[in-house]
Automatic annotation (TrEMBL):
Pfam families, sorted: RelB-like (PF18506)
Organism from which the protein derives: Nitrosococcus watsoni (strain C-113)
Taxonomy of the source species: Bacteria, Pseudomonadati, Pseudomonadota, Gammaproteobacteria, Chromatiales
Full protein name: Prevent-host-death family protein
């Protein structure tokens, strides 16, 4: 996950010097979008029941996936 201090931000300001917009490298923008999507997926699945590692292995073997 990208950290705020690692971003190379440039600000667009108004005539009073107040920050109005941000410019950042495309690669950093894409990484931020990926992080947001990951966090949204975690939030959506938060209420799903957990499964132990042992039970997962048993289920994968039963399904012929390992």
């Amino acid at each position: 996950m990208i950290k705020l201090n690692d971003l190379h931000l440039e600000y667009i300001t108004d005539e009073k010097g107040e920050k109005k917009s941000v410019i950042l490298p495309m690669s950093e923008f894409e990484e931020l979008i990926e992080d947001i999507e990951d966090l949204a997926a975690v939030a959506e699945r938060r209420e799903e029941p957990a499964i132990s590692h042992e039970d997962l292995i048993i289920e994968l073997k039963k399904d012929g996936l390992i």
